[in-house]
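Sync notes, pocket subgroup
Present: LS, DG
LS reminded everyone that the earlier model was apo-only. Rerun requested with thiamine diphosphate included. Inputs:
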Amino acid sequence: MTDKPMHFCPGCTHGVIQRLVGEVIDELGIQEETIAVGPVGCAVFCYDYWDVDFHQASHGRAPAVATGIKRVHPDKVVFSLQGDGDIAAIGTAEIIHAAARGEKITCLFVNNSIYGMTGGQMAPTTIVSQKTTTSPWGRDSGQAGYPVKLTEMLAILDGTAYCARVSVHNPAHILNAKKAIRKAFEVQLNKKGFSLVEILSTCPTNWGLPPLEAVKWLEDNMLSYFPLGEYKAAAGV
Ligand SMILES: Cc1ncc(C[n+]2csc(CCOP(=O)(O)OP(=O)(O)O)c2C)c(N)n1
């Protein structure tokens, strides 16, 4: 990590996740060979916080950009970081096809169930009855359907080697999240194939909650719809 102070709102867990990624890169000793691909969204300034080579992708395109970098530099460790609007809305095609092709990259997916950066609009991952600026009476499944379970969807593809969902709403879960992120990087280092970790994250500002209540909201509302666990660990992973 660099010394630059992070810009995140109080109680947002984007910073916790970026810190975990930095720790994993340090512990694996891969800083010099790692190339990160950043998103559009609240995590956009990760290029200021990680001291690794970096490429910015336009909204949703990080898996396609990471694919190109990894194919040109197969010996580098290439990973992307994306929010749920980025990866499960505008970038749905890119992530599904990168996973189906079995690209040898690692994708980190921060799911805060809302479009954070743009002011709290409904995302594909917004929970049924969750209030957002574009669903002020709560998400209506009859009108807007149901949240996308991307990790489960990717796990059934033959191209994926490792798919897991973790959360960072308390210290025990933060430690588990770090283990999964490390495993996803190890999958790539061991040339096993595509790996993805979805990380459930808070957004107190756009959920309209103080930080501690946001943690509780995640626990009470997100864990039941987005169960944690390893959805795919291919043979040898
Ligand atoms: C092509 C394009 N469309 C739309 C936008 C506007 N935009 C910027 S960030 C964002 C949503 C980000 O939400 P998410 O990916 O969930 O990340 P978060 O900010 O919640 O971490 C959108 C729609 C854009 N920058 N580029």
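DG: The mean pLDDT is 98.
LS: Residues 40-43, 59, 83-86, 90, 110, 112, 114-118, 123 surround thiamine diphosphate (CB under 6 Å).
Action: DG to write up.
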